[in-house]
């Protein structure tokens, strides 16, 4: 045991002050996860009968029911912050909020995949099971407060994602995407593990609370350059694993290829749930591990690192999106840019920042999912994902044209849609800080919003101002119409009256 | 200072167009559901649009009648808390600064709505008036809501939302119903104005976090506010002057520049004016009418309301800069006009030139200067729609706007020539017409303060006269071009829109007092807040 470890052990006493449950006592707090697991098992069992295995209706019904039950069983936010399973998971309103987002996203993905024949009948039950397990992994990912749990759930999510990416076995692009995704993922999770091992070596624990206490104690007793470097490296390496999940630059390279190759319904899921869960984990990692009273401990320049990354991420995402001809690749880059906006909120290291990220996450769920559902619907009709195929959509299907325009303009942050309010909160969190660094980030964010507007508007232009190649009407199946309406309502309503969302988002700040 | 709701009139003015638009959308749904005749519904939609705009116009006339220009402070206030968690209020009100703009808006939108109806004209089916009529009418009505809301909102956040609501309908109106290069023009317009809006957004947030605690409409305490009357009060008490600098630049000055660029793009001020000629040339006639008549005024209104109202000290500091840019606008755009062969482009650049007078008048901080500038806004809001309608008349008939392609039209279209002469003379500032009053007052007001700039600006009036007279000569005088044998004179719809505009132009040229009575008191109060800082 080295000197730092012994200091850290003193601080373990801190843990006992936090309410902590035994394994048996913890069970009631993970009911949503248990319901998900039950649903998965039920689908697997049902698939033993060939008749049920082929039935999209039955499997979707089971999955949707399970998800509904799971969403409603998420413990309501209370101030009873507790640790479960001996400090592996945290039970708090923040985790509940993001679990809700992930599960709603999964629910909509199931509804969207029901009529999407990219996923064949023969493999539908496998797809459903793996998608549910990915959601399960995300739920654990969000609430983990121990590096071991964090790493395990991250791997759980990653491996299920690789499988889902390569789900179109006959399709070369799908296989290529899965391979790229797996190789990047392997490298990055190795890096992350390496970073975690530094923490363990320095402080002798994997518990993030304890690591913070340890760092505070260690740094209060004077530092050496070597120690500073070690802690910085450990933090950055650990961050790499999370950065890869949210597709932040420089860990974003997998994203466009995966988006292009993977089945579209899965991409709708991937573009929302793991990204937002990753942001949630990043907030938890930074705030639980390095922040005391809105001040960063251990001399790690998190505001600068996150701010710089956010600026680079959104600039790169937006600039690359300008040149895209394929709508899925475009949305991939736009997703990278949105990750940059979210990082902007995290970099504020303040409650206003977390609030703005929570708010943005909820709105992003609706608007990005909405855009993807329309991409799925149009793919089912025209078989194409090229932006060219959207020419004259406004006359072929006015509903899809107007809805996609609303989702895209909301993503661009144009009032009176909800995306604007979300972006407004991000900027206000930055300006509230009132220092030059944050003003610079805000200005970069503004310039990026203008760039982003261009490529979103180009799609609107193609849909409304250009003549269609085939003037035949394009009728999406009714289920898509209803999903799109369900996603449009929040985007429109929360753009005008968002007080309920604001309250919900402000309750989910436990730090 | 603590205003409470006194009237719902403004909310009706703002949201009647939305009700009309909702009715049209309901009609679309019915039409699709029962597979009914589209042409019948097109006509119903036109009627709904006309009825809504007429209603709004009537309500603004009632507003004009019951507005008390002698009272200080706001009238027709409608105020309640909108979003509690961010201290955002719904706050509408009228004072001398926005009253003229509200009346102008309802009038010009009515003109544009009439001009969007294909009465009495012989239009082919590709004409914009018969293309996707329901969509057009819905967007036109939303645009009116956006403009009215922008002028009436007294909560900064609410103002910003309405300011942006103007953008989308305009984008689609240019992009779908526009001319050959409509995509380019629409996207350019959107990007330019959005960049400006985002600067305003940053400034707005910075102002919010600098503001001091207030009491909201429901009596609750709030640490910060977007409420503009409160913010102006704080400005008088020096809350912004003492704020922490940003990037080592004085807070008020940096925020002032952000706001000013945002508004100057809409005016449009050199060097941000390049979107305007493109947008005007490609936009259909009624959209050009609204664009020139009202949208450009929102920028000037924003400068008065925010730059002048919240940052008097910075306004005084930047006055010469404003005057220089105003002068560049006037002179540069006038010279550019000389080189135009496209009638619409010529009128577009002449708009840039005339809006320069507004900037110059603002910068002077004299009673004549600012009253003249606001009168110039009204006058330009009447004359430029007339000019665009006139350009639209000839384009509908000849399908070209090339000035040199015509000649001797006076013999074929005497009535048209007469109205065009009136509009051109009003625009070049002939005494007795509305354009003269604004320009002469601006020049009188600016002369003692910026002598050199005023003299240079005044020379541009000669250039203005030159390009207008030259255009008249090329189009209407000289030898008749036999190619245009088939042209006929004005039809009933064109008379309905042109004569009222012409009448008001003459009326305000002879007797401008109705406008001055409305605005003078509030404007002079505004000048007094800046006076201590200037000179």
Distance between the termini of chain B: 30 Å
Q: How many angstroms does the end-to-end distance of chain A come to?
A: 31 Å
- Summarize the biggest pleated sheet of chain B: 2 strands, antiparallel
| Broad structural category of chain A | mainly alpha
The largest interface is: A-B, 32 and 34 residues
Structure annotation, total helices of chain B: 21
Helix percent band of chain A: over 70%
Largest sheet of chain A: 2 strands, antiparallel
Mean pLDDT of chain A: 87
Structural class of chain B: mainly alpha
What global shape of chain B is seen? globular
- Strand arrangement, major sheet of chain A: 1-2
Order of helices and strands of chain A: HHHHHEEHHHHHHHHHEEHHHHHHHHH
Describe the protein's topology:
The complex is a heterodimer of chains A (511) and B (535).
Chain A: H1 3-11, H2 23-26, H3 31-46, H4 50-53, H5 56-72, E1 82-84, E2 89-91, H6 93-113, H7 124-143, H8 147-165, H9 172-203, H10 208-220, H11 225-245, H12 254-261, H13 264-270, H14 273-290, E3 291-292, E4 295-296, H15 302-322, H16 327-347, H17 351-382, H18 393-396, H19 398-412, H20 418-433, H21 436-465, H22 478-496, H23 499-507
Antiparallel strand pairs in A: 1-2, 3-4
Helix pairs in contact in A: 1-10, 3-5, 3-7, 5-6, 5-7, 6-7, 6-13, 6-14, 6-17, 7-8, 7-14, 8-9, 9-11, 9-12, 10-14, 11-14, 12-16, 13-17, 14-16, 14-17, 15-16, 15-21, 16-17, 16-20, 16-21, 17-19, 17-20, 17-22, 17-23, 19-21, 19-22, 20-21, 20-22
Chain B: H1 9-34, H2 38-66, E1 75-83, E2 88-94, H3 99-115, H4 133-152, H5 156-165, H6 167-177, H7 182-210, E3 214-215, E4 221-222, H8 228-236, H9 251-266, H10 275-282, H11 285-310, H12 312-317, H13 319-338, H14 343-364, H15 367-398, H16 409-412, H17 414-428, H18 434-446, H19 451-476, H20 492-510, H21 513-530
Antiparallel strand pairs in B: 1-2, 3-4
Helix pairs in contact in B: 1-2, 1-4, 2-3, 2-4, 3-4, 3-11, 3-15, 3-20, 4-5, 4-6, 4-11, 5-7, 6-7, 7-9, 7-10, 9-11, 10-14, 11-14, 11-15, 13-14, 13-19, 14-15, 14-18, 14-19, 15-17, 15-18, 15-20, 15-21, 17-19, 17-20, 18-20
């Amino acid at each position: 045991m080295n000197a730092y470890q012994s200091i850290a052990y003193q601080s373990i006493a801190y843990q006992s002050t936090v309410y902590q449950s035994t394994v048996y006592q913890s069970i009631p707090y993970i009911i949503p996860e248990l319901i998900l697991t039950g649903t998965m098992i039920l689908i697997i069992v049902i698939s033993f009968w060939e008749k049920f295995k082929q039935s999209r209706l039955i499997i979707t019904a089971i999955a949707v029911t399970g998800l509904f039950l799971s969403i409603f069983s998420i413990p309501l936010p209370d101030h009873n912050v507790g640790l479960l399973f001996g400090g592996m998971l945290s039970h708090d309103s923040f985790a509940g909020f993001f679990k809700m987002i992930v599960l709603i996203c999964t629910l909509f993905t199931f509804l969207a995949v029901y009529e999407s024949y990219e996923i064949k009948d023969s493999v539908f039950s496998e797809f459903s099971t793996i998608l549910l397990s990915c959601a399960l992994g995300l739920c654990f990912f969000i609430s983990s407060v121990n590096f071991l749990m964090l790493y395990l759930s991250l791997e759980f999510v990653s491996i299920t994602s690789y499988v889902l990416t390569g789900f179109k076995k006959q399709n070369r692009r799908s296989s290529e995407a899965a391979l790229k995704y797996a190789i990047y993922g392997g490298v990055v999770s190795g890096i992350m593990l390496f970073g975690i091992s530094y923490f363990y070596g320095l402080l002798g624990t994997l518990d993030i609370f304890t690591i913070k206490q340890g760092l505070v104690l260690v740094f209060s007793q004077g530092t050496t350059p070597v120690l500073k470097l070690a802690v910085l490296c450990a933090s950055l390496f650990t961050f790499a694993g999370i950065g890869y999940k949210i597709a932040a630059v420089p860990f974003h390279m997998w994203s466009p290829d995966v988006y292009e190759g993977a089945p579209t319904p899965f991409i709708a899921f991937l573009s929302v749930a793991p990204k937002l869960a990753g942001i949630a984990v990043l907030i938890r990692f930074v705030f639980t591990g390095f922040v005391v009273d809105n001040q960063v401990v251990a001399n790690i320049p998190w505001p600068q690192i996150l701010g710089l990354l956010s600026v680079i991420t959104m600039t790169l995402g937006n600039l690359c999106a300008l040149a895209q001809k394929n709508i899925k690749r475009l949305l991939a880059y736009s997703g990278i840019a949105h990750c940059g906006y979210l990082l902007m909120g995290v970099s504020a290291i303040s409650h206003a920042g977390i609030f703005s990220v929570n708010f943005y996450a909820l709105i992003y769920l609706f608007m990005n999912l909405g855009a993807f559902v329309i991409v799925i619907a149009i793919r089912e009709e025209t078989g194409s994902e090229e932006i060219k195929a959207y020419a004259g959509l406004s006359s072929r299907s006015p509903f899809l044209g107007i809805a996609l325009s609303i989702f895209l303009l909301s993503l661009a942050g144009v009032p009176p849609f909800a995306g604007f309010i979300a972006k407004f909160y991000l900027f206000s969190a930055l300006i509230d800080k009132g220092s030059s660094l944050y003003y610079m980030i805000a200005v970069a964010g503004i310039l990026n919003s203008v760039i982003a507007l261009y490529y979103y508007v180009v799609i609107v232009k193609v849909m409304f101002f250009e003549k269609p190649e085939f003037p035949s009407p394009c009728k999406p199946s009714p289920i898509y119409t209803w999903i799109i309406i369900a996603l449009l309502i929040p985007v429109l309503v929360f753009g005008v009256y968002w007080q309920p969302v604001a309250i919900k988002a402000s309750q989910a700040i436990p730090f | 200072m603590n205003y409470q709701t006194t009237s719902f009139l403004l909310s009706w003015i703002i949201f009647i167009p939305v009700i009309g638009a909702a009715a049209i959308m309901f009609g679309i749904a019915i039409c699709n559901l029962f597979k009914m005749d589209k042409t019948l519904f097109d006509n119903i939609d036109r009627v709904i649009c006309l009825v809504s705009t007429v209603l709004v116009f009537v309500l603004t006339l009632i507003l004009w009648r019951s507005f008390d220009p002698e009272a200080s402070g706001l009238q027709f206030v409608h105020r309640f808390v909108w979003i509690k968690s961010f201290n955002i209020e719904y706050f509408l009100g009228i004072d001398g600064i926005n009253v003229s703009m509200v009346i102008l808006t309802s009038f010009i939108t009515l003109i544009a709505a009439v001009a969007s109806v294909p009465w009495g004209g012989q239009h082919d089916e590709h004409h914009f008036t018969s293309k996707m009529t329901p969509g057009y009418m819905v967007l036109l009505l939303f645009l009116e809501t956006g403009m009215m809301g922008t002028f009436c909102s007294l909560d900064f956040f609410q103002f910003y939302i309405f300011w942006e609501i103007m953008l989308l309908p305009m984008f689609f109106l240019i992009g779908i119903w526009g001319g050959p290069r409509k995509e380019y023009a629409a996207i350019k317009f959107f990007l330019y104005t959005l960049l400006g809006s985002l600067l305003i957004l940053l400034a707005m947030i910075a102002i919010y976090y600098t503001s001091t605690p207030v009491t909201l409409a429901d009596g609750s305490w709030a640490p910060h506010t977007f409420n503009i009357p409160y913010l102006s009060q704080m400005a008088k008490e020096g809350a912004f002057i003492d704020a922490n600098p940003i990037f080592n630049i004085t807070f008020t000055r940096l925020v002032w520049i952000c706001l000013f660029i945002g508004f100057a793009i809409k005016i449009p001020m050199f060097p941000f004016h390049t979107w305007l000629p493109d947008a005007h040339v490609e936009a259909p006639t009624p959209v050009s009418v609204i664009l020139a008549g009202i949208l450009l005024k929102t920028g000037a209104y924003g400068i008065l309301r925010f730059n002048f109202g919240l940052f008097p000290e910075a306004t005084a500091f930047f006055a010469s800069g404003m005057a220089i840019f105003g002068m560049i606008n006037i002179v540069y755009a006038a010279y550019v006009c000389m080189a135009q062969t496209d009638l619409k482009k010529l009128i577009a650049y002449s708009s840039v030139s005339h809006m320069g007078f507004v900037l110059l008048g603002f910068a002077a901080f004299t009673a004549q200067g600012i009253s003249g500038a606001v009168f110039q806004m009204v006058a330009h809001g009447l004359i430029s729609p007339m000019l665009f309608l006139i350009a639209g008349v000839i384009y509908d008939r000849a399908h070209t706007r090339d000035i040199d392609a015509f000649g001797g039209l006076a013999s074929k279209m005497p009535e048209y020539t007469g109205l065009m002469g009136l509009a051109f003379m009003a625009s070049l500032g002939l005494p007795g017409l509305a354009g003269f009053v604004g320009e002469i007052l601006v020049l009188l007001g600016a002369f003692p303060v910026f002598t050199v700039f005023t003299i240079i600006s005044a020379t541009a009036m000669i250039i203005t006269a030159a390009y207008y007279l030259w255009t008249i000569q090329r189009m209407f005088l000289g030898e008749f071009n036999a190619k245009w044998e088939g042209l006929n004179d004005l039809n009933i719809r064109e008379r309905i829109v042109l004569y009222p505009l012409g009448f008001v132009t003459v009326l305000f040229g002879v007797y401008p007092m109705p406008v001055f009575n409305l605005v003078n008191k509030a404007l002079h109060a505004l000048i007094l807040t800046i006076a201590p800082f200037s000179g």
